[in-house]
Amino acid sequence: MFKKLAKIALVIICFATLLGAFHKPMLKQVYKLEYKETIDKYADNYKIDRELVYALIKKESKYDPLAVSKKGAMGLMQIMPDTGKYISGLLGEKNFKINDLYDAEKNINYGTYYLAKLSKDFNGDVEAILAAYNGGEGNVRKWMTENGNELYEDKIPFKQTRNYIKSIKRDYNIYRYLYISK
User: What is the pLDDT of residues 124-157, one digit of tens each?
Assistant: First the structure.
């Protein structure tokens, strides 16, 4: 019996050692840097943390440029057509077409620009930025007004938005761990 337990313990120790040595490469298979050049370009341009953009795209579309949500959000960063038109106007572009949101470069440009706008509007508060991206700017302003100009994740009335924030923050921290930490 003791020999059997010792063998099992040895297997567990070997597995744990291998897992420890290879956990980053394994995680990088799930947390990829797709569209890296484009994401890095716009994140740098708009001064947004690129790992936040990667995490948001992973959550929103799983890197599918043709993704469409049940509510009609489109592309990599799942931008609603009205929001795309709004962003297009803010960027001084003319002739916005809804199908532009399927273009990876344009979608990343618009989405990253919008994150930068939200960052400015909400003083860099990541939770407020993500809540606004998911639940709407107007809702976040209302929630903050109701709570002394603070956003408390547990007081957000939309469960989907609370879960969205938690999920993206988790992925954001994983991206930072994998690609920033040494």
Answer: 999 999 999 999 999 999 999 988 888 878 888 9
Single-letter residue type at 100: D
CA dihedral 16, 20, 24, 29 (to 10 degrees): -20
CATH class of the 31-179 domain in this structure = mainly alpha
pTM: 0.85
Tell me if residue 146 is catalytic.
no
Span 19-48, pLDDT tens digits: 455 578 888 889 999 999 999 999 999 999
Give me the residue spans of the domains in the chain. Answer: 1-25, 31-179
Distance CA(64)–CA(5), nearest Å, equals 47
Q: Find the catalytic residue in 34, 37, 51, 60.
A: 60
